[in-house]
Design a protein that fits this description.
With 465 residues, this protein is α+β, with helices and mostly antiparallel strands. Strand 4 and strand 5 form a beta hairpin. Helix 12 packs antiparallel against helix 14. The protein is elongated and about 85 Å long.
């Protein structure tokens, strides 16, 4: 559906590739580590750098948006066509901490190109995947002869994703009118592998809680009082044991309400991926699989909700024995959610489930952290099909397969507030080492990302009318 000639796109990209990589390297030199207060000025410098580069790219509107934490960048380039749809691109310009002594072969903030790769913190997560949009839109214009994109193009690049996006939803809500769009493209994701291009169709949501259980006012003698008063550590253990049944299904009443079951077609598409469970177990540093009966490993981590114990404590933990009934115990739980589940409802059901199981004589407190909603785009959505077509053209007609993401992120806030479908477009691969020493991006794949976006805007302009 795109009106962008493939050969013209590739010629333009090749002519401007060296300058593009030089610019990306300049951006990577800015240590925009949002989690470390000492780098607050660097995060601001990163935002200013990007805003200036987007102006240079051609965006008539390019602004740095302050938040109570780190700044975001907003840019806008109207199409000039009254009927053109509006597309918002999301990414982030902050990065994870990095230091040479962590195991880096080189300075993490002095980019190095070697063997067709660019090494440096943020090369893949997420500066490289944000920056390919700048060359992509210019290639789109050059190949079509347009003076503005085929869609009303907006960018929102936040500065706190690596710190949990504490101010992101409020920023989106406060600027919902300016961010209004028909589709959202998230370029903070990846592909299955270098040889298997994929598009992610959804992310799980998240609810987390801490539970404190209080029994005696102090630790007491287990011989004098054991068997006659409730033990908070025992209650904690029973709560955890009761979370799942023999089939590893979550037992909390109503937990699965609203979930659409995986269709046969969806299961077939996931089964097409070249998944090697033995290799996956090695990457998981684990020695066996276990999960909800009736589902494959990939279905469990991508398409089913979970209840996980993240931590348990209480009682004596030192060497030797100590015959006490502890005065308190603690649990930390997280629940990954899938489309159809509402975090607010899950919190209420978890709260009620815990209260029903705490016996008399035990006082409990439960605290929930910030939640994240799940998001899922139907496989037949026209915007998703545009992403697939554009990527297939960049990958020389190769079949594009589908994945999901087991983790959670702020993309769901965009879907929730803007009521727009979220699409994922990323070219990073597992070997890129997000958050790890020697993070890198494959330059040929980075160029494929540029090509994909060059084709995408014309395709979306037609698909979303």
């Amino acid at each position: 559906m795109s009106d962008t000639p493939d050969s013209a796109v590739r010629t333009y990209i090749e002519q401007h590739r060296a300058a593009f990589l030089d610019d990306l390297a300049d951006w990577l030199r800015i240590p925009s580590v949002s989690a470390q207060p000492d780098h607050a000025a660097d995060v601001r410098r990163s935002a200013d750098w990007l805003a200036g580069k987007l102006k240079e790219t051609g965006f008539p509107v390019s602004e740095v948006w302050p938040t109570p934490g780190a700044p975001a960048v907003f840019a806008e380039w109207p199409s000039g066509d009254a009927d053109a749809p509006t597309v918002l691109v999301y990414g982030h310009h902050d990065v994870q901490p990095a230091a040479r002594e962590d195991g880096w072969h080189t300075d993490p903030f002095e980019p190095l190109i070697a063997d067709g790769r660019m090494y440096g913190r943020g090369a893949a997560d997420d500066k490289g995947q944000v920056f390919f949009h700048t060359l992509g839109v210019r290639a789109h214009l050059a190949a079509t002869g347009r003076t503005a994109p085929a869609v009303n193009l907006k960018l929102l690049i936040e500065g706190e994703e690596e710190s949990g996006s504490p101010n992101f939803r409020a920023l989106v809500e406060a600027n919902a009118d300016r961010l209004a769009s028909d589709a959202v493209i998230v370029s903070d994701t990846g592909m299955w592998s270098e040889t298997t291009p994929t598009v992610c169709t959804g992310m799980r949501g998240l609810v987390d809680c801490e539970i404190d259980l209080y029994g005696p006012d102090q630790d007491i003698h287990s011989g004098s009082f054991g068997g006659a008063v409730p033990n908070p550590a025992t209650v904690a253990a029973r709560l955890v044991a009761a979370l799942h049944d023999a089939d590893e299904q979550v037992t909390i009443p109503g937990f699965y309400d609203g979930i659409a079951p995986l269709t046969g077609a969806e299961r077939e598409l996931l089964a097409e991926l070249p998944f090697d469970e033995a290799s996956w177990l090695k990457s998981a540093k684990s020695h066996g699989t276990l999960g909800e009966a009736g589902y494959t490993t990939l279905e469990r981590v991508w398409a089913r909700p979970t209840a996980e114990l993240n931590g348990i404590g209480g009682g004596y933990q030192g060497p030797g024995g100590k015959t006490i009934i502890p005065s308190s115990a603690q649990l930390k739980l997280t629940f990954r959610l899938v489309a159809g589940q509402d975090p607010d409802i899950i919190e209420k059901t978890v709260d009620a489930w815990v209260a029903d199981r705490v016996p008399a004589g035990i006082r409990h407190e439960i605290r929930f952290g910030a939640s994240t909603r799940p998001c899922l785009t139907p496989l037949d959505h026209p915007a998703l099909q545009s992403v697939v077509r554009a990527m297939s053209r960049a990958f020389d007609g190769q079949k594009i397969r589908f994945t999901r993401e087991g983790g959670s992120g702020p993309a769901a806030d965009l879907q929730d507030v803007l009521a727009a479908p979220v699409l994922f477009l990323g070219i990073s691969v597992p070997s890129d080492g997000w958050h790890a020493p020697n993070e890198k991006v494959e330059l040929d794949l980075l160029v494929k990302g540029v090509e994909t976006t060059a084709h995408l805007w014309g395709d979306l302009a037609q698909a979303l009318r």
